[in-house]
Known about the structure:
Blueprint: H1 7-34, H2 40-46, H3 49-64, H4 70-121, E1 135-139, E2 154-158, H5 159-169
Antiparallel strand pairs: 1-2
Helix pairs in contact: 1-3, 1-4, 2-4, 3-4
Amino acid sequence: MYNDLNINQIDLIKHDLSKIKDFEEDIWSFIVGNYPDHEPKTICDYMDYKERESTLELTYFTCHHPLSSDKQMSQAIEIIAILVAANKYSLGKKIKKELTKRRRTDFQKERDRLMLLLIERDPYECVLCKLTESLSIDHVHPISKGGSDDLDNLQLLCKSCNSSKRDVIK
């Protein structure tokens, strides 16, 4: 079978086998050894996007190469699933962050109108300590955690109470 191959073809086969071996020895053992729970968040915390993409590239190569063993192919399929889940998690985080940023910008545009509505609804004082100085609009359920800008989710708090609320939420 290999008698008809020229030196360049043999070198390519050796190179391919070397990449497949790198996958099994480096990628498989690294991910299984360091991330046994396969949690996407954990993988994203320690592998940046470029690392995940280069790992996926080598994994796809191994998965689809005719010289890969059945064991290597099944390992590659498992790693692909793990890394795709990590990339999906990472993308979801970025989208959520962008949406939160956009919602905060929209809220700032409506801030004066909302403040007037709150003053009309409630006395002009902090709902917790009744101070009337340094008041700000507070989201009862934070925007970053899915809260809305609806009036029933807004309240007036002084800077001190608002700061202490942040400490409790974190």
